[in-house]
């Protein structure tokens, strides 16, 4: 089974860990100005990353200065380049945290190269990202849009059919995809999707997992679904399910037998009782079964089926 995606969030830290995190972040991303930056932050009691640093305003940063170079001398101004680095680091953290809607561990999951890309290609000093915990008008509009999905579409679990046999997977898959798209839930199946509202996304994932648990009755599918009972990672579950059932030998074998019969049938065969009408009805049922269990692009055309039937009748 593919392992669930690693959670890059940064939990609440103790005071000591918070101080250490600030030191390590500045040293990693702000060298060679890291010593001056830390000295200025400590002088003004911005000693913790979560506790003080991430909430600093531009005015706080612009007012930073350095301790005097010797006793009796005035404090030294903090170089503007150092002030700029502080603002960039703060914005880098907020930028990544806003993607997941909670604190992002920029030490463990980001590199200096990631920081440089943000600094040179994304960061706008005139329009820095707000703190991740502050909801902007765009955030509120997006969250409202996601919350409306249940009210407008009114999705129902009964809209989804049961998968009783893996041999019917090809057709079932088409119908299932059509249904979840009709419910505007494509994002649940997108591994790269980053939710704007974590609570809504989690609720939607659990809702979809319950559908899969109740509707996927075929043994191979059921086995895969139960592996995800703890995390309900729909994108990973669906990926593994498709990998398994798209290559199902049972499905291929049954389809192969039906194709063989349809292309070489003999309507004079007495194994089907009831005369020619029963033979034709049986033939039609085989066509329907094949088409229900294979992708649309693999279906026989009416012209092809007519030729097969004419051949079968002439034997």
Widest sheet: strand ordering? 1-2
Largest sheet: 2 strands, antiparallel
Tally of strands: 2
The amount of beta strand, in percent, is under 5%
What sequence of helices (H) and strands (E) makes up the elements? HHHEEHHHHHHHHHHH
Helical percentage? 55-70%
Would you tell me the overall average pLDDT? 83
Poorly predicted residue ranges = 1-5
Structure description:
By secondary structure, the protein is mostly helical. Helix content is 58%, strand content 1%. Helix 1 (15-29) runs antiparallel to helix 2, helix 10 packs antiparallel against helix 11 (234-245) and helix 12 (249-264) runs antiparallel to helix 13 (275-292).
Question: What's the helix and strand layout?
Answer:
Elements (H helix, E strand, L loop, with lengths): L14 H15 L4 H10 L14 H5 L2 E2 L9 E2 L2 H21 L5 H4 L2 H11 L14 H17 L15 H14 L15 H18 L3 H9 L6 H12 L3 H16 L10 H18 L9 H12 L2
């Amino acid at each position: 089974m593919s392992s669930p995606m690693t959670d890059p969030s940064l939990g609440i830290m103790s005071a000591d860990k918070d101080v250490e995190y600030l030191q390590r972040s500045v040293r990693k991303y702000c060298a060679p100005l890291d010593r001056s930056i830390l000295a200025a932050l400590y002088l003004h009691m911005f000693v913790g990353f979560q506790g003080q640093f991430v909430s600093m305003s531009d005015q706080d940063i612009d007012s930073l200065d350095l301790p005097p170079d010797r006793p009796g001398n005035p404090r030294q101004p903090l170089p503007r380049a150092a002030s700029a680095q502080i603002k960039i680091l703060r914005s880098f953290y907020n930028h990544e945290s806003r993607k997941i809607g909670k604190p992002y561990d920029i030490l463990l999951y980001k590199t200096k190269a990631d920081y440089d890309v943000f600094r040179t290609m994304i960061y706008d000093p005139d329009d820095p990202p707000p703190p991740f915990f502050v909801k902007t008008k765009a955030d509120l509009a997006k969250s409202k849009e996601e919350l409306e999905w249940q009210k407008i579409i009114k999705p129902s679990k009964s809209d989804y059919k049961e998968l009783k046999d893996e041999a019917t997977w090809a057709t079932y898959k088409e119908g299932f995809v059509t249904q979840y798209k009709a419910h505007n839930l494509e994002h649940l199946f997108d591994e790269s999707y980053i939710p704007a509202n974590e609570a809504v996304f989690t609720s939607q994932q659990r809702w979809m997992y319950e559908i899969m648990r109740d509707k996927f009755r075929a043994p191979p599918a059921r086995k895969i679904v139960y592996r995800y009972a703890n995390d309900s990672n729909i994108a990973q579950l669906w990926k593994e399910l498709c990998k398994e059932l798209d290559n199902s030998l049972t499905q291929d074998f049954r389809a192969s037998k039906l194709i063989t019969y349809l292309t070489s049938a003999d309507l004079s065969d007495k194994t089907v009782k009831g005369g020619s009408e029963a033979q034709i009805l049986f033939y039609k049922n085989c066509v329907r079964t094949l088409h229900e269990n294979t992708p649309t692009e693999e279906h026989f055309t009416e012209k092809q089926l007519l030729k097969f039937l004419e051949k079968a009748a002439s034997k």
